[in-house]
């Protein structure tokens, strides 16, 4: 099918479907029940950048930018940027130990319920079979349909397959190749690197200021048509139940295309009989059209609409990097609880090595999270927010890129979730002493009754008393991770 054929098909599907390419129609779309129920998913950043394994997943851009350490590292390790460009990593990307079923088994053991691989990153190398990009993992490198294999393994395990595309940013991403003697503008590879638009606003580190501005210079019609077709092809071939976009699509030039992509995707999902949603950042979509995402961060309070946080186990890179440092399972568990208490879902990233193995550090974190969820997941899965998200002095700093080293919780800090007449109270930093929660003090008029309290860690009912100041729950259990008390109310 040609690009023009696909553009025509997109228009026909929208014309004949329930959803039209306008916000009024798309605002009737609802958050999928499965997504809201399952709460916890795995993100995967794996591609050519893992072969370099240095700096972060922006290696493809930074290796051409003398302002970044990747520039000199590349010259010392691989050669100058003209004789060994980013494309030359492709033959080295063999993925000889990649085992989709082994990955998914680990993800399932972590307690995650959905999985979202990055199908194409900003670097322009597609990890799936596509008719619109010859630079892909099926025809080059590992010669495998990585996304197809993962989808099969994910669905075999009863998990939900989702997909992410970061193709939009490739419009400018490789333009640092113009700042040095490189291969970026070579004619035979320009369909890989291009357009690498030479515009000052998107040069070097100007891009951060520029891409935050909705009204900054945007993409061309030629690029946007191509981007929309590639996105809709991904939808048709792999049928992801979440479609995630990275930043910059909030730029004004993308708006008409976002409406068409959303209408096409939602209409296709109607044909499949599936619940889906788009995940976005910043102000790319209006509320209720899609699901808002906070990258490496969270919200300070309860959102009336379901939302998502995406973060990584790795502190400095989403993809594999030899210098990366890793969060503890305890930090991730605390993040998960806090996010769910505020009506959110967590998408947690891993960055596999170029051979297709997952680092020991990430494996351990996932295993430890799974062990905790096996006992405490009742307070996470299928829950919603309570009348308040928590209690205590400690809270996250709201916004993007705020995950850092975590929050310094104390034994007086709690988070609450709710399900079917039960409040789940998570003590974020247990100290092995009796637990005191002010939110359940005895009020008298219009007070709820507390019938039973169970500690999920042990499954045992525990004694409690209520005073005018607090509920006192008898406890002697010590734990490095949060404890969850199941409080049954009337």
Explain what this protein looks like in three dimensions.
This protein is α/β, with parallel strands linked by helices. The chain has helices spanning 3-16, 23-26, 33-38, 49-52, 59-62, 69-77, 100-109, 146-156, 170-173, 190-193, 206-212, 221-238, 255-272, 329-341, 360-376, and strands spanning 40-44, 114-120, 160-161, 163-165, 242-245, 277-280, 291-295, 307-312, 344-350, 390-391, 414-419, 422-427, 435-437, 450-455, 460-461, 464-466, 471-473, 483-489. It has an 8-stranded parallel barrel with strand order 1-2-4-5-6-7-8-9. It has a 6-stranded antiparallel β-sheet with strand order 10-11-12-18-14-15, covered by helices on one side. The longest helix has 18 residues, at 221-238.
Average pLDDT score: 96
Query: Could you tell me how far the N terminus lies from the C terminus, measured between alpha carbons in angstroms?
Result: 61 Å
* Number of distinct beta strands: 18
Strand arrangement within the widest β-sheet reads: 1-2-4-5-6-7-8-9
Please tally the helical runs, counting DSSP H or I stretches of 4 or more residues: 15
Largest sheet: 8 strands, parallel, barrel
Low-confidence stretches: none
Which structural class is indicated by helix and strand composition?
Answer: alpha/beta
Percent strand equals: 15-25%
Helix content: 25-40%
Shape: globular
Task: Report Rg.
Answer: 24 Å
């Amino acid at each position: 099918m040609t690009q023009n054929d696909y553009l025509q098909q997109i228009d026909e599907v929208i014309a004949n479907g329930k959803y039209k390419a306008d916000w009024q129609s798309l605002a009737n779309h609802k958050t999928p029940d499965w997504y809201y129920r399952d709460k916890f998913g795995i993100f995967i950043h794996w591609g050519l950048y893992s072969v370099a394994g240095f700096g972060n997943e922006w290696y493809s851009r930074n290796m051409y930018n003398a302002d970044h350490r990747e520039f000199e590292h590349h010259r010392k390790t691989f050669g100058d940027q003209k004789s060994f460009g980013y494309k030359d990593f492709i033959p080295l990307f063999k993925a000889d130990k990649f085992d989709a079923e082994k990955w998914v088994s680990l993800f399932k053991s972590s307690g995650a319920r959905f999985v979202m691989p990055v199908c194409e990153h900003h670097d322009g190398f597609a990890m799936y079979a596509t008719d619109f990009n010859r630079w892909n993992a099926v025809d080059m490198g590992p010669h495998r349909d990585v996304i197809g294999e993962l989808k099969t393994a994910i669905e075999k395990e009863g998990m939900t397959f989702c997909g992410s595309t970061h193709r939009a940013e490739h419009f400018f991403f490789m333009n640092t190749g113009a700042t040095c003697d490189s291969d970026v503008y070579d004619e035979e590879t320009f369909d890989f690197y291009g357009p690498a638009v030479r515009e000052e606003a998107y040069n070097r580190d100007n891009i951060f200021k520029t891409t935050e501005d909705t009204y900054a210079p945007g993409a061309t019609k030629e690029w946007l048509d191509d981007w929309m077709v590639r996105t809709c092809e991904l939808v048709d071939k792999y049928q992801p139940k979440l479609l995630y976009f990275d930043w910059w699509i909030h730029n004004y030039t993308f708006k008409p295309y976002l409406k068409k992509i959303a209408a096409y995707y939602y209409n296709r999902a109607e044909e499949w009989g599936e619940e889906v949603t788009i995940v976005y950042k910043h102000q790319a979509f209006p509320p209720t059209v899609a699901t808002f995402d906070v990258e490496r961060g969270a919200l300070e309070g309860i959102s009336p609409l379901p939302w998502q946080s995406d973060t990584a186990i790795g502190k400095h890179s989403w993809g594999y990097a030899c210098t990366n440092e890793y969060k503890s399972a305890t930090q991730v568990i605390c993040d998960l609880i806090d996010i769910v208490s505020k009506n959110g879902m967590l998408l947690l990233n891993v960055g596999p090595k170029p051979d297709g193995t997952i680092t020991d550090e990430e494996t351990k974190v996932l295993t430890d999270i799974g062990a905790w969820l096996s006992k405490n997941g009742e307070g996470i899965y299928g829950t919603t927010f309570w009348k308040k998200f928590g209690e205590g002095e400690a809270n996250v700093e709201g916004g993007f890129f705020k995950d850092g080293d975590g929050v310094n919780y104390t034994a007086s800090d709690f988070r609450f979730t709710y399900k079917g007449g039960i409040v789940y109270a998570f003590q974020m930093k247990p100290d092995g002493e009796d637990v005191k929660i002010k939110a359940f003090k005895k009020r008298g008029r219009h007070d709820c009754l507390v019938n039973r309290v169970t500690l999920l860690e042990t499954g045992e009912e525990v004694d409690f008393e209520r005073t005018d100041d607090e509920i006192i729950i008898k406890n002697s259990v010590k734990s490095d991770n949060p404890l969850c008390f199941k409080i049954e109310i009337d």
